[in-house]
Amino acid sequence: MQLGAFSISLAVKDLAASRAFYEKLGFKEFGGNPAQNWLILKNGDHIIGLFQGMFEKNMLTFNPGWDQNATALDGFTDVREIQRQLKAQGVALASEADEATTGPASIILTDPDGNPVLIDQHL
């Protein structure tokens, strides 16, 4: 199972304050749209997503089809296949991808400690 790029998505209270804090740690803007209350910051291979008012908890995020530079990979495990494999192992999903579609889709599951895990395919 190839999960693709990894990042942590943080539910922040103040996008500008969070951005300023992580910039002090050497993170630079990599993507996003502050006018829409979200930014992606990067420091080397480390990626942090800052999301104001979009979700309640911080979550682990994987992007099938992307490497750590958001460059498309030649081959990857489609999110729908990941979903099938997880369901076959008895993993409960909080949100599922439509199996009848192709392209961008996402699923959400929760680890045993209550941490949400987003598998978000953009291709």
UniProtKB/TrEMBL annotation:
Domain VOC: from-to ranges: 4-122
SUPFAM superfamilies: Glyoxalase/Bleomycin resistance protein/Dihydroxybiphenyl dioxygenase (SSF54593)
Domain of life assignment: Bacteria
Database matches in InterPro entries: Glyas_Bleomycin-R_OHBP_Dase (IPR029068), Glyas_Fos-R_dOase_dom (IPR004360), VOC_core (IPR037523)
Record Pfam families: Glyoxalase
Protein name from the UniProt record: VOC family protein
Species this chain originates from: Rugamonas aquatica
